[in-house]
Amino acid sequence: MMWMDKEDPRVTFVDRRNEDYEIKPDRAYPSGTTISVRPDVVADFTALPFPDSTFWHVVFDPPHIIRNAELGTVTKKYGVLNGDWKAMIAGGFSECFRVLKPNGTLIFKWCETQIPLRDILALTPEKPLYGHKGGQKSVTHWMAFIKHNASDQATASARRC
Ligand SMILES: C[S@@+](CC[C@H](N)C(=O)[O-])C[C@H]1O[C@@H](n2cnc3c(N)ncnc32)[C@H](O)[C@@H]1O
């Protein structure tokens, strides 16, 4: 999907699914197409099995569709948000920032077909630096955050004294 090479050794790919799906043939997918979700680490993004400050760069690409069951190709490809989606996304942001090193960058992707971006950004106290809208209907947003560095802040405060 978004990766140039899903086997790239620089990437630790996390997903709670570890499955292959055969999808219904349509214009985009010929008969017999399978989608493979084969993460390096099977885990929930609200409880990542990594110590604090592990990565310089994190990509958070959660599902954007709220549904109780995986129905069609889109939900199989992108997954679904079921249950308390606000708590899930808030927990995901919090975990992404926990495992990022200070000054590390988080790239966040959101497709606002069902939930507006502003409602999603309200689930984290962090503010994106910049972003870009794309996709056929301009509903897919990519944005970059940078993790606050507490020691920079302390130095700046000391300079202000
Ligand atoms: C938009 S897709 C990510 C696609 C991925 N960026 C790629 O390029 O292959 C969202 C994924 O999040 C997974 N997911 C949904 N809820 C999750 C959770 N709580 N923890 C971990 N993964 C989750 C889904 O299984 C789905 O594969």
What does this structure look like?
The protein has 161 residues and is an alpha/beta fold. The chain has one domain: Vaccinia Virus protein VP39 (Rossmann fold), CATH 3.40.50. The longest helix has 15 residues. The protein has 4 helices and 8 strands. 23% of the residues lie in helices and 26% in strands. The chain binds S-adenosylmethionine.
Mean pLDDT: 90
Q: Supply the CATH superfamily name.
A: Vaccinia Virus protein VP39
**Percent of residues in helical segments?**
10-25%
Category from helices, strands and their pairing? alpha/beta
CATH topology: Rossmann fold
Order of helices and strands: EEEEEHHEHEEH
| Bound ligands, named by name, code or SMILES | S-adenosylmethionine
Distance between the termini: 50 Å
Determine the strand fraction and express it as a percent band: 25-35%
Largest sheet: 4 strands, mixed
CATH structural architecture: 3-Layer(aba) Sandwich
CATH class category label: Alpha Beta
Domain unit count? 1
Low-confidence residue ranges: none
Q: Note the overall shape.
A: globular
Oligomeric state of the chains in view: single chain
